Q: What sequence folds into this?
């Protein structure tokens, strides 16, 4: 009651000045605070950099208290320096640009569009691209350009208020309120971001935070909200088909205990809708735990499919080949893996909510991956055609289908063409 009397009998002029002071303080803080730094995004990024990039830095000099070394992180454009990597490494990181508040009726279900970060440029096919290897101050994502650590963190930012087709109003608001924000705000690579694409964070954080909390993210504002690439498409297949890559290897490590191939189906559907390119598989032969006994063949860990580029690009265009790999146990694994498989009903498709692996759990996943790749990988080196023939003969134990035999006979190594296609993506 006393506090109420203080409010009731305090002169309105003093209350007004106090309110204006708070408002001014809030505005000043909005111009000062980086919404990407004051969130879990920064914490997540620092630990990913230390765990993975730091492990590959042979000359690191870590802080004795934190274990961090600023030199662990490198800029995306540095990944395409021939003196360092001899031009062999061209990573394309898949990210989702959230459109929870977007106006495109055809995209009301997906609520996101594909976004990529590479050593050459960052952006999306719909909006355009900005160079990451431009002069300082004109690079996308900051004065020195977006870093590998930041791009990797955004690409894996699964827990975010805006999550593409996973978004819901209540979850969006609660996660923002609790600051569970692994995603990041960066400049729009399109025309709306002409004055912001080179910034590493919004100059004024109030607008983006409100848009994030109430699901108002779109691709027409000066800043866009980026999160886990799986919020659009989980396999990275969409962007490779967009670039007309002719040889694609996909590893599907999503939680799929019944082998519904949901992530693959989602990718194939969006590619057909957006790009008009069908992807066809003759047979899968990858069985779930409950299906193993119902089939005469032993089951496999991969399947080979056809990417029908000729449907869109014309009969003269060569179709592509996709090798789809998925973890599965069929009884021919090393005994320790099969024992763990029989004893744990969800292995090897346990939920990603389990972030604390036991020793046997970690080793079983590691060894299953090693065993799978030992079965598939051969002495073919970089010869993809030899790789396909070895899989057909030794793993799938089948003859090459007519369409595949024709492609293998007529196709040459297309690596140079893939890089050229990537470089020719439109920039705005």
A:
């Amino acid at each position: 009651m006393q506090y109420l009397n203080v409010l009731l009998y305090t002169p309105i002029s003093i209350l007004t000045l106090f309110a204006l002071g708070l408002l001014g303080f809030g505005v000043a803080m909005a111009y000062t605070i980086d919404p990407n730094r004051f969130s879990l995004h920064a914490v997540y990024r620092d630990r990913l950099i230390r765990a993975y990039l730091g492990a590959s830095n042979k000359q690191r000099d870590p802080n004795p208290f934190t274990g961090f070394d600023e030199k662990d992180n490198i800029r995306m454009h540095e990944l395409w320096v021939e003196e360092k990597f001899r031009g062999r490494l061209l990573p394309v990181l898949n990210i989702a640009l959230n459109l929870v508040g977007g106006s495109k009726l055809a995209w009301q279900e997906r609520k996101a569009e594909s976004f990529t970060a590479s050593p050459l440029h960052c952006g999306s096919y719909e909006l355009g691209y900005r160079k990451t290897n431009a002069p300082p101050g004109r690079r996308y994502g900051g004065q020195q350009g977006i870093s590998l650590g930041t791009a990797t963190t955004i690409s894996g930012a699964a827990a975010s208020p805006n999550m593409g087709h996973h978004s819901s109003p209540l979850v969006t608001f609660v996660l923002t309120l609790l600051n569970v924000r692994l995603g990041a705000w960066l400049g729009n690579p399109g025309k709306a971001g002409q004055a912001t694409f080179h910034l590493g964070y919004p100059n004024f954080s109030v607008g983006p935070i409100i848009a994030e909390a109430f699901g108002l993210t779109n691709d027409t504002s000066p800043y866009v909200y980026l999160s886990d690439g799986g919020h659009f498409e989980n396999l990275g297949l969409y962007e490779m088909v967009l670039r007309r890559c002719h040889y694609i290897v996909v590893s599907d490590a999503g939680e799929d205990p019944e082998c519904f191939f949901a992530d693959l189906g989602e990718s194939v559907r969006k590619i057909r809708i957006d790009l008009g390119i069908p992807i066809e598989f003759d047979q899968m032969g990858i069985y779930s735990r409950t299906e193993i006994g119902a089939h005469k063949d032993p089951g496999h860990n991969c399947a080979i499919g056809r990417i029908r580029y000729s449907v869109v690009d014309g009969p003269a265009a060569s179709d592509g080949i996709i090798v789809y790999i998925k973890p599965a146990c069929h009884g021919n694994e090393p005994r320790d893996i099969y024992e763990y498989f029989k004893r744990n009903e969800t292995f090897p498709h346990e939920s990603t909510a389990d972030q604390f692996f036991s020793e046997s759990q970690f080793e079983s996943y590691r060894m299953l991956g090693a065993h799978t790749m030992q079965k598939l990988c051969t002495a073919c080196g970089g010869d993809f055609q030899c790789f396909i023939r070895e899989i057909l003969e030794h793993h799938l134990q089948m003859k090459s289908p007519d369409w595949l035999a024709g492609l293998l006979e007529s196709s040459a190594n297309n690596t140079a063409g893939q890089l050229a296609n990537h470089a020719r993506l439109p920039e705005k």
The chain is about 35% helix and 10% strand. Confidence is low (pLDDT under 50) at residues 413-420. The radius of gyration is 25 Å. The chain has three domains: 2-32, 40-231, 245-350+364-422.
